[in-house]
Each structure stands twice: as C-alpha cells, then as structure tokens.
Write the structure tokens for this entry.
Amino acid sequence: MNRRLLLFFICLTSVYVAGNAQNKMIEMLKSDLKSAKHDTIRCSVLDQLIEVADEGEWQKYNEQMMQISLKNIGLKPQGRELKVFSKYYATALHNQGIIFSEQSDDDKAVEFFNRSIDISKKSGNKNEIAISLQAIAQIDIRRGNNTKALNQLYECLKIFEEVGDEIGIADVHLSIGDICFLQNDYHRAIEHHKKSHALYIKNKYEVALSTINFKIGVDYNALKDYSRALEYLQKSIDLIESSDYGVNSVAYLNIAQIYIYQFRYDKALEYALKGLKISESMQNKVEINHGHIVLSKIFKLQKKYGLSVSHAEEALKIGQETEHPAEISMAAKQLYDIYTETKEPEKANRFHQLYIETKAILDNQESKNALLEQKLKYEYEKKELINKAESEKKLVELASENQKRNLLKNIWLIVFGSVLVLVSVSVFFVYRNFKQKSVITNQKNNLLKQKLLVSQMNPHFIFNSLNAIQNYIFKQDSLKAGNYLTQFSELIRMILDFSRKDYISVESEVKLLNTYLELQKLRFESKFDYQISVDEKIDRETVHIPPMLAQPFIENAIEHGIFYKKEKGRVDVRLYYERSLLVYEIEDDGVGMEEAMKLKNKLKSSYESLATIITKERMDTLNEQSKSDIEIEIIDKKNNTAGDSGVKVKFVVPFKEI
C-alpha cells in the first residue's frame, strides 16, 4: 500500500509501527534489498521499507526508489515492466510531495502530487491518481479552498468505489467530515466520520482507529454531548495504549486535549510538551502550530495568562507564515478568549476581527453549497449508473424473449435437423469422455500432491532433524539448536504450503532448497558444501515452476553419494535457460552410482527413494498435460571423465511467466 497523506488540521492521530516486530521487519527488508538481483524486486522492497521505516529514513529509501524506477523508464521498457516501474515512480513522486507538505511548502507539494497523477494516468493506475488527488485536497482544505477540495474529494470517492478501495473511501469521508466540522455542521461531520469509522473497522485498519475515535469525540463535544464525547475520546487513548503502535507528535497533542476535557491539566501539559518537542525536531510547522495552541489552552485554564498569550502569539506567527486560514483562525480565537477573560477589550476586539475574517474563509456559503451540490451530483451519477445497468439488463431480457419467439416460429426446422442432433449427441459423448479424463487427471494430480507431501515429511528425516536439535540442546549449544529449530520449522511450513500449489516462484523454490540444504548440512555436521545458482536472465518473481522437483535428486546426492564419501563433498544446483527451455541441473562429487549400489547391496538395503519415484510420476503427468516429452538424464560422471566421481542429473522444467 502506498504511503497516504492524511493531514487533518483540527486534530490528528498519526501512528508509526514500533517495537521489536517492526525492527525485525526492517532488518529483514534491508537484507532482501541487498540480495535483490532485479530492479523490480528492489523497488518492491523499497516500497515496503518506506511504509515501516522511521522518520528521516523512509525519505532516503524513497529517493532510491525514484532513481531506480526513473532509470528503468528511461530504458523504454514495454508491457508489464513499463507499468510496474511507472507505478513505483508515481508512488515516489507522491511521497516526495508528502515530504514538501510536511515542511509546509505547499506549492512544491502540489507540483509533485500533480506529476504523480500525470504518470499514473499514462499507466492507467486509477488508485494512485485518487490518492494524490486526495493529498491535494488536504492542502486546499488547509488553505481554506474548501469548494475546490470538495470537488476533488468526490472525484476521489468515485475512483475508490470503482476500484473497490474501501480504505480510500473511508479516508475521503474522514476529510469531508473535517470540512463539515469547520463549517459548524457537526451532525453531518459525525455522519461522515462514522462512515469512515465503520469502514476502518470492517477492513481492520487499526492505524486509523485511534484517529477516527478522537474525531467523533470532538464532534460530540462540539454538540455538547459530553458523555458520548468522553466515550469516544477514551477509546482513542485506550487504542493507543493497548496496541503495538507508537505515537508521534500529533497523537501526543490529541491525548493532551482529551485530558483537558477531563480537567486533568497536569497530564495534559505533560503530553502537550512532548508533542511540541517532537514536532519541533521534525520541523513540521503545522504540528508546531497545533502544539502552541494546545499549550496556550492549558495555561489559560491554569490562569497563567502570560504563558498562554506567548504560545498563542507563536501559533499565530506560524499560521501567518504558512498562510493557512485554519491555523490563523484558531490562534486568533485563542488570543480573543484570553484578552476577553483578562478584561483587555481593545486587544480582544482586534483578534476577534481577525478570527471573524479567517473563519469566513473556512465557513463560507459557497463551500456549504458545494458540499450539497457535490453530494447531490455524486448520488445522481451513482443512480444513473444503476439505472443504466438495469436498462442493459432489460435489453438482454428482451433479446432473449425475441430469440425464444423465433425458435418457436422455426420449430419445423427441427425435423430437418435430426442429423444435427446425431452430431450433437456424438459431440456430447466426446465431451463427456474428455471431461472424465480431465477429472481423472485432476484426481491424479491431487494424489501426487498428497504423495509428495508425505515424501517430503518422511519420518526418517523428521526424526533425524529432531534428534540433531536434541543433541545440540544436550551439548548446551543453544545457538545451533535455535538455528536448527528455526530452519526446521520454516522448512515444514514451506513444504505444507508449497505442496498444495501447482506452481511457485523461482524465488520461493530457491528459498525452500536453501533451507533444506542448510538443515542437511547441519545434520551431517558440514560434511558437504553446496551452491544454488540461478541464471541472471531468470526473473525470480515472475517465473513460476512446479515445486520441489529438484529436492529428491538433491536428497539422493547427499544420502547415497556424499554420505559414503570419506572426504568433504559438494552439491551444486543450477537453474538456467538453454535456448527457450528452462533446465534444472543437480551435480555432486560423491562416490557415484555404481559404488553407491555396491555399498547399498553390501548393507542389504532395499530402500528406494519414495520422493524420486513420485517425481518421475509427476514428470509423466506434466508430459501428458503439456503434450511434451520431458526426460530425466542421469549421468555417472565416472563414465564420462576418468578419475571423476559423482552423479549429474539434468532435466527440463515446465514454467510459466506470471
């Protein structure tokens, strides 16, 4: 999901993921970024890092994503690659707009949001268009351009409904509710905020729940419904304190205001000072302004008028610098209230006049009419779409009725169509025969999947693995025991997951084989080394192959080749293109097939790898489905090169590009 701009100038609760879970995720993504071999994968990882990285860090990742995507667009790719890199470039431009918006450089922010929209239009990414359009609307709200903002928000609403983005729909209702609040239409503000609240809960969008509860509480407080106000405001605090999320400056300021409503001024002051300190470190002028307003309210309630005036004047100064009517209005109202209480009418009148002027910008009749107009237009267009769909349905029904009448009129043709009936019967039996074969093939595939799962989960391997873990525990080698147990559980999870799928990505296959080989290496106490090589031409994410085709041959290489070797062995797994074919190659330097058979007979072992048998059956089924002739080539290296030992297995792999 793209990083979305949610600037709510009344009161906002923003949360960032924190704690151990977040740190582990960041480290894992950083590792993925280092190992990524394709720019599509790099952009995907960077996009995720932007979502979870701390302030000051995500901006660097965004710059990297912008450079990589722009470089690839310059290479003039076609089809899917062009769409993918255009998406990431549009996202990076949008994020850059957020950076400028947080610095109160609104003109620069709008420039980048519009550039993002232009790229998204060319690539057909409607959702990204709506997200950037909504960000521009938020800036227009801050500037007091409510009419323009409402036009943009309802345009966003149509797009989000078309693409089915319920979080986007909820964000739009939240913003419209904020405009209604500024217009003192508190009932309509609650209506929109509650729509937003319901969609956030439905989609389990926990990041926004504290925000929306706070806003509904503020709405009820404005209506003087204090019991409901405190109910929602308390929910906001409880959500922050009971969740795994941390808080930023605005969240602290919102909590401070809740404590003001509860007359707990010392607690309110504590949180307000924390919020102001963080916002100053981030140089976010809008949040600094809010911090001074909240502190001014607290000091006024404590009768510390000097401090109250000082903070209110600082808020007014910042509001005038950023030219935001909402901030100027709040600061002017606060100064008016202070000077009214301290009985200084001349100063009170001056700030009351400023408050009236700026409030008029936010609370003008044009924007109220625009709200009603846009709502009626939206509902009319929605009704038109429904009517159009119903009309089309009626036309289809009429056409169907006409076809029936024509059929009745021409029923005498049935007599002369007896031959066609015979043909139809023949086709039916051919089709039924084909369908039966298809059912048998599907049953065979399902049976093979079950057999494959059983072969991968064979008790011998599980017992040896658990025994190895137990030995490490007895030796008090907790690090190795922990590593072995982690890899063993990960392998079991992947086997259970992949055995249900017909095809998995090359990246997933490599991860499975790497985990399996690491476990075998631990089990045999580093008796062998291994390497998994994937042709650079292969896109690991988009190329998909049947899972676990190579694993049985790797198992044979270790169990029957390396196991009997006195020296340290080696296993090489290669996946590469050979002309237009995808080829798997498994090679070991063990004792070889002939020597392995001798030792096997000497030990009187009748064991034959179940997984190898099942893999051959799978190959036969794949040949049947693709009408190809895929064979497994097994070479005893001793027969090709004197003095060489080991076995090389080579076979063609069916693949799909997704």
Summary: The longest strand covers residues 569-578. The chain has a mean pLDDT of 79. The chain is about 75% helix and 5% strand.
